[in-house]
Amino acid sequence: MLIKNLVFKSTILLFLLLSFCGLNLAYSAPRKYKSAILMEAETGKILFGRSMHRKLPPASMVKMMLALIVMEKVKHDEISLSDKVKVSRHASMIGGSQVYLREGEVFTLRDMMKAIMIKSACDAAVAVAEHMSGSTKKFLVLMNKRASELKMNDTVFKTTSGLPKVQNGHSGDMSSAYDMAILARELVKYPTVLKWTKTKTDTFRNGKFILTNTNKLLKTFPELDGLKTGYYRRAGWSFTATAKKGDMRLISVVMGCPTKKTRFDKTREILNMGFKNYTKLCLVKKGDVVFENVPIIMGDKRYINGISNKNITLVVRKIDKKKIIKQKILFDKIQAPVEKGQRIGCMLIKLNKKTIAETSIIASENVNKISRFRWFVSQL
């Protein structure tokens, strides 16, 4: 009997010990990423986030800022994608992922950008930065200035390529999943960039060099069309992705994944979660008539329309779609004179009795004031 009791107590103790260890192991198990975010592109609404402001090395995702500056300058006719870019000795000696540029070679800016956004070519990134500003140091000023304008407060760029750099005891580029999503949100406004980033393979140097996209998720995720991968050993594996289903475009960022496969698996998981659970609703457009035939007192027009002064587009959980309520409020006794654009009411968008958006209702046209007699006659 004593032996049985001892065995029973030992079994219980062993079970408790294993359970305790198991809980600790589960608690201390490494997360599949250090930082992540899911954002809807048009509204900027954050649908998911984990340590999204944690400052981490973005590696080659830095090149998204280079691409944004290039495309903005193309948009404003400051440069052209047909411009010729000459390779410097410095650019030809850059390591990392590259297209093996040689000093003195000349390529169009378009070809260089394809090499950067498809192959993640560091040598092409340096060559483009030098072409744009004369040196990478001067181009970095543009990169950090643009980051500041976009309120990328977690970001400091130290390179144009994303390669690791330690100088005077300081690390290289630093950013966050949130800031990379903000940057991506600007970049997806340019269809040319998405055309490059969804390209699985292309050629360079007159077909002699094959550009293979570093984004392997393109093969298995049809709706995905970008954007940029990043990796070096200390940074881990990172990926800023974007995909579009219907009229909703999502942007996901994962940073500091332990393996290449993990960054793609987690990206797929996060994007699928977003598309499965959320929907985008265009509830009213700027200029839509919200109130018809609004009566005007003492005016040379008896009625005008009340229109919305802005768009209201919301991203909501699909289960909340039918709970959205539009509450229209029209001000009483609107008297002339009325100026076009004058606020005459409002529309509140409510979910679970809470106002989640609103727009002013404004006069669609001018109304002049008339005399009491004239107005009285007009009512007959």
CATH topology of the largest domain, which one? Beta-lactamase
CATH class of the largest domain: Alpha Beta
CATH superfamily of the largest domain: DD-peptidase/beta-lactamase superfamily
CATH-derived architecture of the largest domain: 3-Layer(aba) Sandwich
Structural class: alpha+beta
Provide the helix percentage: 25-40%
Shape: elongated
Spatial gap, N to C terminus: 109 Å
Give the strand order of the largest sheet, numbering strands 1, 2, ... along the chain.
Answer: 2-1-9-8-7
Radius of gyration: 29 Å
Order of helices and strands: HEEHEHEHHHHHEEEEEHEEEEEEEH
* Largest sheet: number of strands, sense, barrel closure: 5 strands, antiparallel
Record the SSE blueprint.
Layout: H1 2-28, E1 35-40, E2 46-50, H2 63-75, E3 84-86, H3 89-92, E4 106-108, H4 109-119, H5 122-133, H6 136-149, H7 177-187, H8 191-197, E5 201-204, E6 209-212, E7 224-232, E8 236-245, E9 248-257, H9 260-277, E10 278-284, E11 289-295, E12 303-308, E13 312-317, E14 325-330, E15 343-351, E16 354-363, H10 372-378
Antiparallel strand pairs: 1-2, 1-9, 3-4, 5-6, 7-8, 8-9, 10-13, 11-12, 12-16, 14-15, 15-16
What features would you highlight for this structure?
alpha+beta, 5-stranded antiparallel β-sheet, 2 domains, 380 residues, 10 helices, single chain, Peptidoglycan synthesis regulatory factor (PBP3), Domain 2, Beta-lactamase
Describe the protein in words.
The protein folds into 2 domains: 35-278, DD-peptidase/beta-lactamase superfamily (Beta-lactamase); 285-378, D-Ala-D-Ala carboxypeptidase, C-terminal domain (Peptidoglycan synthesis regulatory factor (PBP3), Domain 2). The chain is an alpha+beta fold. The chain has 10 helices and 16 strands. The protein is elongated, with a radius of gyration of 29 Å. Strand 1 and strand 2 form a beta hairpin. The protein has helices at 2-28, 63-75, 89-92, 109-119, 122-133, 136-149, 177-187, 191-197, 260-277, 372-378; strands at 35-40, 46-50, 84-86, 106-108, 201-204, 209-212, 224-232, 236-245, 248-257, 278-284, 289-295, 303-308, 312-317, 325-330, 343-351, 354-363. A 5-stranded antiparallel β-sheet has the order 2-1-9-8-7, sandwiched between helices. A 5-stranded antiparallel β-sheet has the order 11-12-16-15-14, with no helix packed on it. It has a two-stranded antiparallel sheet with strand order 3-4.
